[in-house]
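Quick one:
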Amino acid sequence: MTEKFGVLGKKTSRRSDVERIVVTPLPTVHGKFRAYGYVDHERGVEQVALVHGDPGAEDVLTRLHSECLTGDAFGSQHCECGAQLVSALGQVADHGSGVVVYLRGHEGRGIGLLAKLRAMALQAEGLDTVEANLALGLPVDARDYGAAARILDDLGVRSVRLMSNNPRKREALVRHGIRVAEQVPLLIPPCESNITYLRTKRERLDHHLPHLDAMAHVSFGP
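Output:
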């Protein structure tokens, strides 16, 4: 652990593997947030947490959002990532407090941008998202949530209301010492381009996506 002073003058204690570097106000279209910038020394990755209001320590409305350039920045409809990020920021702002940890290095469930694009190309040929990763000799999900837990620990968060449909994310946080008081669904209406992807996430990756039941017999074709 080391002690340093942030740019807002607050003395903080940090673990040496994930170090807080800066805190700055960040006004957004959703409301006013504070951006906490970190360096994950173990993995050589810069991370950021957006904090709204005074979240406190217990049962904090929280989203751990895996980086997705295609969805978050380009508005890809291959996945629901961009819409989930927008929804999470909006829900935190509407709630009056909460945390969104944006996890860089998680692109393509941890395989990286170019590998994700290669996997998407295989999906366009008929493989599902699990089969595509395996065909490339890559893990189905290589993400690690240790840095996220360290960031929450640095922010003083002991338990969360986790905005996620992924039970494995909940399990990972618990393993790293963060209590999950509730798992809050973050359900985005599917479209023609991502319905197969979402069904694969439910059937093969155990994501809780009950809203797909209503789409069981829906055809998006002309």
